[in-house]
Design brief:
Elements lengths: L1 E7 L4 H13 L4 E5 L11 E3 L5 E5 L8 E4 L5 E6 L2 E7 L6 H15 L5 E6 L14 H13 L1 E3 L25 E6 L5 E2 L4 E2 L16 E5 L9 H4 L21 H10 L2 H4 L3 H15 L19 H19 L5 H35 L5 H10 L9 H11 L24 H10 L13 H10 L1 H14 L8 E8 L11 E6 L2 H18 L20 H17 L10 E7 L10 H10 L4 H11 L3 E6 L2 E6 L11 H9 L11 E6 L2 E8 L2 H21 L10 E6 L9 E4 L2 E6 L1 E4 L2 E4 L5 H19 L10 H16 L2 H4 L6 H19 L7 H8 L4 H17 L5 H26 L3 H9 L3 H5 L8 H8 L5 H6 L18 H6 L5 H7 L8 H7 L1 H35 L9 H33 L6 H12 L5 H4 L20 H23 L9 H6 L5 H5 L1
Parallel strand pairs: 1-2, 7-8, 14-17, 21-23
Antiparallel strand pairs: 1-13, 2-4, 3-4, 5-6, 6-7, 8-10, 9-10, 11-12, 14-15, 16-20, 16-21, 17-18, 19-20, 22-23, 24-25
Helix pairs in contact: 2-3, 5-7, 5-13, 8-9, 12-13, 17-18, 17-19, 21-22, 21-24, 22-24, 24-25, 26-27, 30-35, 33-35, 34-35
Keywords: Nucleotidyltransferase, RNA-directed DNA polymerase, Transferase
Protein name: Reverse transcriptase
InterPro entries: Endo/exonu/phosph_ase_sf, Endo/exonuclease/phosphatase, RT_dom
């Protein structure tokens, strides 16, 4: 059964917040929202139409959206939730009958053939059947649609109107029932006594909108234990889930180690079963088990408080009292408006207080959890996992296909070398490599507990693991895997390809897999005789995506280096980025077995792997309990052996015989075919032949290409490039593009890195704008934590930097990178928005992005040339080089820049090495003002139009700058005497770096001085605003001559517009040939021509007074006075221009394009 809430928010933020709060606290499943205030980004619980006027919102604690059926029609969205097709609609009252009929026809096409349909929304259609005062044509159309689809009406005519109406004008906007609900008979839950829907109701509660809630249930009745226990305050019923879980927050390493010794762990373990039982008993002794429950009740909204609930109840009573009196009394109406406004203010204040508490928790956190808190805050709501058995079976069957049984080759011949024994040192290395927060498998033993056991009691593990190697077997308990389906962001829900299947394995079994992998790599990755292709760069030590990308880029550069074609040079390179459909889950075990034998893997290891693939099982949770399924193909995503086994099997495609001029590059399952040709058609033909050869290999090994995800790029030296070159991919024609994305890097047809830099900059900007919300001037995390959060944006920018670092030498690239880093550096230091990028980056102590990219490139090149060198030593040396380049750049900018603020910042921070290497002090809101010069001082405020004069109001003839208020102004002499003894303009920066004590003293002085100046500026702004409000309207007191001049200007504009209209008509007539205008048009043109003012008006001009230049204001919107002054100044300048033009003072001014370029007319142009 689905619990539905239907509501029209009328674009009100608080009304939408209340509705979301209701569906969470009252355990409702779906919210059908019309006219939402806003739609969150990347939230899998929301589905909207393209115009975002209607939405289907599911409760993330209960049900997911199974499938999106339709969202293209404006005002209509359809999706499957809980096995029911829900269609939510919003039709504007201004929609005509023909358009309404068209919408009904589209809905008919959407739901035709569906057996369980819910059609609901705000249709703005009237009919007597659902309680309207009359029947309109749109109501007839809606009822006819319902009859055609076999839907029944759920509305009750005796319920309250769903639209409250406008109480101030009940004649034009009376209460009505525009919200209508239809459902299929199988889910309608009709009452057989009166043939009406059970549970369809309109609660009379406050909604902060002009619509009421509509609440009802559809579908079969739910089990009585589903939510009743939670509502009655009882303990929710337990549900059956696969595997065991413990509360890892209770884990204590010392306690766990003592429990191992006290239970006799070493004596009890003599087999795999006893090992698992012993670990389970020790975990039970030290941690509590977690039992999943069927509790679907959600927490209230983060802004909810008991006081807000009391205000909601009070508003509901006020609305009920107002409804009883028609027309409402003025006092009741006033009280209702006051209660509504107070509720809105309370919700807004509660949101701000909640965010302030969040910022305080980040600032006070000392454990490092703040990083997860921040990204959890901005991540938004999570989608509920799919639990419907039929849907899960459909998805799992598509993701894990069934392959025929494997016939392993004869293992009696081959490499009979024994496997080396397991040592305690190897087990210790495995324990050190375990991540403590990795999710466990079905046994539930966490990695932290297994790490302690391996380090304190390694001998039992060694005996069990060595016995597995000697017997050439892989234990059956460790072959079971628990499936978790992770939805891919931005993908359509319900499709199997929209999920990323992750299989959770027992951590003890993964330790055994690590031992097998170490022995497998001894033969596969032997430096003297490597068994894998050099063109495979994925899942291999010492190889990365950068090498694969660099190989593609090098091939493109070779093609670009060739000049004009001579029918011999291959100056055109076709890059084909192939995608394999569901690659890892469809890998053939038969192909893996044959590849292992072909590569000479020892027979003993092959036998273990043969047993590793035998009788593997997959478990996943459903609403009816865990389901077990046999697995017959694929390499487990989440296993240790899986990536290497994939490389062994996939190595065959890299050895496929390709046509001349073609090569292949692989990274895991991603393939890039490089086809070089003399002309684009030649390169396309080679690429098509190479793709056909690869596809043949895929078919033989039960893999398939995805043509819809294949991308093509033609790299050539032709300036305009080659686009839309067709290539046949598995019977589908795919055309080349100007740029494609390969392994996270945008490749351009001329290897221009602008598309890639713009892509990563936009991605980083989204992160920066989200982080700037918590980087407030007077609150939020410390500077050190802000830098750690800023590293997220830097990591996005730096991806693939060794490949595209050459672009950082160009100005456009630096401008794009500076745009991102400037916002981030201003947020780190709480500096003004006007602070330049160079100053903000220096104050933040963050290396400029273009220098950071070059540093990454130098480190990468050195590591490739000398792999045995220490990465830390190389990074430290290159960091010194980057600091030298940064210092040189900082000195050059200060020497060549005319900004006094930048020169002031350079005088205070002359050495970036000392500044970034200090061990004390953080730059806050006040200290950044002192060091940058952008502060609440009249010098700065006057430059940006916030102050009438740069002079100090207390010191006549002195400019109020940062240096003046800090070291000269007598107004702050007591502050200087207390904190700034021995500090001057010449040694401010050196004092800051001298010690933490001096830093704190200067910081305290800056806070006391600048806070006073900030308060003074606010008072000045309030005084000016009050003075402007008290002045009369400037437009009403215009001089008479100025008004007459403006009237003449308007008449001239009218003459000019009419002349331009006649000219366009003549040009149109010339283009159409012999065409006679309609007599009425000719008569109107003649009348307009007769009514035109003559040139005598221009002779009567009287020079108006020169209007003053309006003040500049960049950060605040212009006042009405400033707007009027700007208009008068603009009109005056136009009049002056026309006068000078008429008197011949301007000379000959070229027209059109030549006027912009100031180029004299050529002789050829005059002749034409």
């Amino acid at each position: 059964m689905l619990n539905i809430l239907q509501f029209n928010a009328n674009h009100c933020e608080n009304a939408q917040d209340l509705a979301l709060h209701v569906i969470t606290t009252e355990s409702l499943d779906v919210l059908l929202l019309s006219e939402p205030y806003c739609v969150p980004r990347n939230n899998g619980n929301w589905v909207t139409d393209e115009s975002k006027t209607v939405a289907i919102v599911v409760n993330g604690n209960r049900l997911p959206i199974q499938r999106i059926r339709h969202r293209q029609t404006l005002g209509v969205v359809a999706a499957d939730v809980g096995g029911t097709t829900i269609v939510s609609c919003y039709v504007s009252p201004q929609t005509g009958v023909p358009e309404f009929r068209s919408i009904m026809e589209k809905i008919d096409l959407i739901v035709r053939g569906c057996s369980r349909v819910l059609l609901a929304g705000d249709f703005n259609a009237m009919h007597l059947d659902w309680g309207s005062s009359r029947t309109c044509p749109k109501g007839l159309e809606l009822l006819q649609l319902a009859d055609n689809l076999g839907l029944v009406l759920l509305n009750k005519a005796d319920c309250l109107p769903t639209f409250k109406g406008n109480r101030a004008d009940t004649n034009r906007f009376p209460p009505s029932r525009p919200d209508v609900t239809f459902a299929s008979s199988v889910i309608s839950r009709l009452d057989p006594r009166d043939d009406s829907a059970r549970g369809w109701r309109v609660p009379d509660v406050a909604t902060l909108s002009d619509h009421r809630y509509v609440q009802y249930e559809v579908g079969e009745s739910s089990p009585p234990t589903r939510d009743r226990a939670a509502r009655r305050g009882q303990r929710p019923a337990r549900v059956s889930k696969a595997g065991t879980r413990w509360k890892t927050s209770q884990f204590d390493s010392q306690l766990f180690g003592k429990a191992l010794a006290m239970t006799g762990f070493a004596r009890q373990v003599n087999s795999v079963e006893s090992l698992v039982e012993s670990l389970t008993s020790v975990c039970d002794e030290t941690m509590s088990r977690v039992f999943p429950t069927q509790d679907h009740t959600g927490r209230p909204a983060y802004w909810w408080t008991p006081a807000i609930q009391a205000m909601i109840d009070n508003l509901s009573r006020k609305e009920q009292m107002t409804m009883r009196t028609i027309p409402p009394e003025e006092q009741l109406q006033t009280e209702l408006l006051a209660a509504r406004e107070s509720l809105r203010k309370a919700i807004r204040l509660s949101k701000n207080e909640a965010f302030d508490r969040f910022l305080r928790s980040i600032r006070e956190d000392v454990t490092g959890i703040f990083f997860r808190k921040v990204f959890h805050w901005f991540q938004g709501a999570r989608s509920a996992p799919e639990r419907d058995p039929a849907e899960l079976r459909r998805i799992v069957d598509a993701l894990f296909p069934v392959h025929p049984p494997v016939e392993w080759p004869d293992l009696g011949v081959g490499n009979m070398a024994p496997l080396r024994s397991i040592g305690l040192t190897e087990l210790d290395q495995i324990a050190a490599s375990m991540h403590p927060r990795k999710a466990p498998g079905l046994d539930g033993v966490p990695n932290a507990a297994l790490t302690v056991a391996l380090r304190q009691q390694p001998e039992p593990f060694r005996r069990v693991f060595q016995e597995c190697l000697d017997m050439s077997c892989f234990p059956q308990p460790w072959k079971k895997q628990r499936l978790v389906l992770l939805p891919k962001p931005g993908k359509s829900p319900g499709e199997p390809s929209s999920f990323r299947p992750i299989c959770l394995l027992d951590n003890t079994g993964k330790a055994l897999e690590r031992l097998l992998l170490n022995r497998l790599n001894e033969y596969i990755e032997d430096p003297e005789s490597p068994q894998l292709s050099e063109q495979q760069f994925g899942f291999r030590r010492g190889r990365s995506t950068l090498q694969a990308i660099q190989q593609v880029v090098d091939a493109g550069r070779r093609a670009l280096s060739l000049g004009r074609t001579n029918n011999r040079d291959r100056r055109c390179l076709m890059v084909v980025a192939l995608d394999v459909r569901n690659a890892f889950n469809t890998a053939s075990w038969q192909s893996i077995a044959e590849a292992l034998q072909a590569k000479g893997v020892p027979v003993q290891l092959c036998r273990i792997l043969q047993d590793y693939f035998a009788d593997r099982e997959l478990e996943y949770d459903t609403a009816d309990g865990p389901v077990t399924r046999r697995v017959s193909a694929g390499v487990t995503q989440g296993s240790i052996l899986g990536p290497t086994l994939w490389n062994i099997m996939y190595d065959g495609v890299l050895a496929v015989e390709l046509p001349e001029g073609a090569s292949i590059v692989g990274f895991a399952d991603d393939l890039a075919i490089l086809a070089a040709g003399t002309i684009p058609e030649h390169a396309a033909a080679i690429a098509e032949e190479a793709v056909a050869a690869v596809n043949n290999w895929m078919v033989q090994h039960k893999l398939s290409l995805a043509p819809e995800k294949t991308e093509l790029l033609m790299i050539s030296s032709k300036r305009s490039g080659y686009r839309n070159i067709p290539v046949n991919i598995c019977g589908v024609e795919v055309r080349s593009k100007r740029s494609i994305r390969y392994l996270g890097v945008m490749l351009h047809d001329h290897l221009s890195w602008r598309p890639h830099v713009e892509m990563v900059a936009d991605k980083a900007l989204r992160v920066v704008r989200a982080l700037r919300g918590i980087m407030r001037n007077h609150s939020g995390p410390q500077v050190s934590k802000r830098k750690l959060l800023a590293a997220v944006a830097a990591s996005i920018i730096r991806y693939g930097a060794p490949v595209w670092t050459e672009a950082t030498d160009l100005q456009w690239c630096r401008r794009i990178l500076d745009r991102v880093q400037r916002l981030l550096a201003q947020g780190i230091t709480s500096a003004f928005h006007s602070t330049s990028c160079e100053v903000a980056v220096v104050l933040a102590g963050e290396l400029p992005y273009h220098l950071l990219a070059k540093e990454d490139a130098r480190c990468y090149n050195r590591q490739q040339s000398s792999p045995d060198s220490s990465r830390e030593a190389i990074r430290q040396e290159e960091k010194e080089t980057s600091l030298q380049l940064w210092q040189q750049q900082w000195d050059d900018v200060a020497a060549n820049n005319t900004s006094r603020y930048l020169r002031w910042a350079h005088r205070q921070v002359p050495d970036v090495r000392l500044w970034t290497g200090r061990k004390h002090g953080e730059v806050d809101f006040y200290l950044s003002q002192v060091l940058s010069g952008h502060a609440f001082v009249h010098e700065f405020l006057h430059v940006f139009g916030f102050a009438p004069s740069p002079d100090c109001p207390r010191c006549a003839g002195s400019v109020e700058s940062v240096a003046h208020v800090m070291f000269e102004c007598p107004r702050f002499a007591d502050v200087r005497a207390e904190f700034l003894q021995g500090v001057g303009e010449h040694n401010l920066g050196s004092r800051l770096l001298e010690s933490a004590e001096w830093w704190d003293r200067i910081q305290q002085a800056a806070r006391r001085i600048l806070s006073v100046l900030q308060e003074d500026w606010r008072e000045e702004q309030q005084t000016l605003a009050a003075a402007e409000a008290a002045q009369p309207d400037p437009a009403s007191s215009l001089p008479e001559d100025m008004a007459e001049a403006e009237r003449r200007l308007l008449r001239r504009r009218e003459v000019r517009n009419r002349s331009a209209q006649r000219r366009r008509q003549q040009q149109r007539q010339q283009r159409l040939g012999d065409f006679e205008l309609v007599p009425a048009v000719l008569a109107r043109a003649a009348a307009n021509e007769a009514a035109e003012p003559t040139g005598e008006v221009e002779e009567e001009e009287v020079s108006p007074p020169v209007p003053p230049i309006p003040p500049r204001s960049r950060r605040l919107p212009p006042s009405p006075r400033t707007t009027e002054m700007r208009r008068r100044r603009r009109n005056y300048m136009q009049l002056q221009y026309r006068r000078r033009r008429r008197d011949g003072e301007l000379g000959d001014v070229p027209q059109g394009r030549q006027r912009r370029g100031r180029i004299p007319t050529s002789a050829a142009e005059l002749e034409r």
